[in-house]
Amino acid sequence: MLRTMGLAKRMLWMVPVLAILGSFGAAASSWSFPSPLVSLFKSWFLYPKATPTTAPPQEGTSEGTVTPVEEATPGEGPEVSIPSSASRRDRWGMAGKGETEPLDEGTCISDLQERIVMQATRTRIIIDEFKDEYTRHNYNMTWDDVNAHFPDVDSDRAFLMACNEEQECLSVLPSLPPTPPQPPTDDEGSQRILKELSGYCRQYCEALSLIFLDESLFEERFQEDLDTAQRNMESLTNILVKGVDLCDGSPDNDLVKKMVDMMYKREDQDMRHRRGFATLRQCLLGLRFIIDVFSPET
Question: 20 to 30 A from 194, CA-CA: which of 25, 67, 139, 163?
């Protein structure tokens, strides 16, 4: 039934539920709504799973138990024995392909750099498409005018905090270096930069999820835009994490784990608008930073 309902009608189910949870949380503390609730909301109301259907038997066949056929995935091939001593990059190149494919000369992420730039550019375009409407709706000004009205970019991080019940808080938005690092020239440098960039993107994903929750509870106008931006940011994060793996590294998950365990902080309308603008501006700056790392000539 939910699949046939529009987004607005689904929200009619969600708002009373969140209101009840919010009133209950307000009685216990000033912090409410853990950020994982955002993912639950999306799975229920934005992307409900379709009910699987069973195809009728074809003519000439008898009804009975049908043996499922496993769906093939792109690049899937005969099973191969991958040496345990192979690097992650080599194992990734051999897995599911039947043979080792030649890789480009260069660092362990040479094959991913173009994908990173393309996905970061795609995510920037998505935010660019609705950012002006966002500021006109919230401030009655263009994006450029609001950007000039709040010139202190470094203060953006202070407007979006994740806190626990003891009021110990962390800034959700990352702090970027003043200039992008030079493109990596070896595997060690690639691993270090990719761990750093994937950490930034994970924080941006968490920030976008909190702004999405603001919209879900109070505005209901830019939900789909914010959700699309977050999903594309997650796609970029996945590419960067794959790069860390190819370089025989492991992503740092500690900071984001701490944030996820913290709580969403309710604010008044002015504060919600300010932290929404801060989040979008920082996301755009971070995406530009990532693009500059891998294509400095732009």
Answer: 163
| CATH number for region 113-294 | 1.20.1250
- In eight-state DSSP terms, residue 170 is E
Compute the distance between CA of residue 291 and CA of residue 286 in angstroms, rounded to an integer.
Answer: 9
CA distance 272 to 218: 9
Report phi then psi at 66, rounded to 5. -100, 125
The pTM (predicted TM-score) of the whole model is 0.66
**DSSP 3-state percent helix, strand, coil across the chain (nearest 5):** 60, 5, 40
Q: pLDDT tens digits, the chain, 298 residues: what are they?
A: 434 444 444 455 454 545 444 444 443 334 444 555 555 555 554 554 444 444 555 554 444 444 444 444 444 444 444 444 444 444 444 444 444 334 444 567 777 889 999 999 999 999 999 999 999 999 999 999 999 999 999 999 999 988 887 888 888 999 998 888 877 778 888 888 999 999 999 999 999 999 999 998 998 889 999 999 999 999 999 999 998 888 887 777 776 777 766 767 778 899 999 999 999 999 999 999 999 998 855 4
DSSP state of 46: I
